[in-house]
Amino acid sequence: MTAEPITGHSSRWPVPPQDGYTVDDLFTLPDLPPHTELLDGSLVFVSPQRDFHTTMIDLLVTGLRRSAPPGLKVRREMTVVLDRRNGPEPDVSVVRADAVTGPELTRFQAADVVLAVEVVSPDSEARDRETKPHKYATAGIEHFWLVEMTGTDQHPVVRVYELDPVTKAYALTGIHHDRLKTGVPFSVDIDISAEALAAL
Questions:
Q1: pTM higher than 0.70 for the full model?
Q2: What DSSP line would sit under 86-127, residue for residue?
Q3: Cβ atoms within 10 A of the Cβ of 72, count?
Q4: Phi/psi at 148 (nearest 5 deg)?
């Protein structure tokens, strides 16, 4: 693979292969920015995140870890390999405990993931609402949560989806504003109020 300098810049950017990048490239290309994702063979770079994004992830990770049964683990911002041309990085993943093989682990397979969570950012709105849910559903990930900040009071809202085995698409099963309480993929009860977020 070659890299051509961009006029006026000292950085050198890799020239994509004709058929796009693969998951192997995602883990072997040097100097990729942290949290780079692979979608449809294209590298996606993440913009600096807002405080809402990071604190909401913290809130959910803490709540999920408190509730998760022994056979499941909660991880944040780890690549999930859906196929050779797609390696997104959910903000939060609940995975099978036996898939966590050690501290050098860099990725999970879609079959290891029970729940994928995306916290929407302005730069990732279309990916988080449309592209990623479709890909997660196609890969068979049974549960998906979409988290957004709504209204002028900057209040969190969590939309909970479950995979319909007939249509292979997600069906909305709940919209949660102050308290995220659901029985799937396990019993969860998390305070997601603006006050809980502000307390972090």
A1: yes
A2: BB---SEEEEEGGG---TT--EEEGGGEEEEEEE--GGGHHI
A3: 19
A4: -135, 160
Cα 22 to Cα 12, 37, 112: the distances in Å are 20, 11, 20
- Kindly state the DSSP code that residue 61 receives in the 8-state scheme: H
pLDDT digits (tens, 9 = 90+) for 14-55: 678 888 999 999 999 988 999 999 999 999 998 888 899 999
Strand partners, 44: 37
Pairing of β 92-96 and β 113-119 = antiparallel
Token digits of residue 61: 């990770």
Residues 197 and 156: beta-carbon distance below 8 Å = yes
CB count within 10 Å of CB 55 equals 17
Q: Report how far residue 59's alpha carbon sits from residue 87's, in angstroms, rounded to the nearest whole number.
A: 25
